[in-house]
Amino acid sequence: MYDFEVYTGKILPVPGEPDLGASSNVVLDLVKSVPTGIYHLLYFDNWFTSLPLMTTLAKKQILCLGTVRVNRLPGISFGSDKDLLKTGRGTHQEKSALIDDVEV
Fold it and tell me: Within 13 Å and on the Cβ side, how many CA atoms surround 55?
């Protein structure tokens, strides 16, 4: 563990970083203490996962992996929840894209 932060209410943008919204700003604040350029791998849940955050971290050579909410992936189609239920437990879908010269 490099850092942690106790939630105290308002989440502000991180100075010197793009304002990516509350959930991403929390991550950007916490990774300030993570060494860049050595490809650390960060895991987070769907509240934090967004494409702008993933590309920002990749440019710092910090890799990340997380579940994602479909509404945070504009223009990308997934099967319906009903169709996924038919395929059985553990089913997943993978998509990849090139965003700002970063493959996610």
Answer: 13
How far, in whole angstroms, is CA 91 from its chain's centroid? 21
From CA 25, how far away is CA 100, in angstroms rounded? 19
Tokens linked to 51? 């494409």
d(CA 22, CA 42): 18
- CB distance 83 to 58 below 8 Å: no
Partnered with residue 12 across adjacent β-strands are none
Is 51:18 a contact under the CB 8 Å cutoff? no
pTM above 0.85, yes or no: no
Give 4's DSSP letter: -
Cα 35-8-40 angle, rounded to 5 deg? 15
| Nearest-angstrom CA–CA distance, 100 and 59 | 9
pLDDT at residue 89, as a whole number? 84
Determine the Cα–Cα distance for residues 63 and 57; give it in Å rounded to an integer.
7
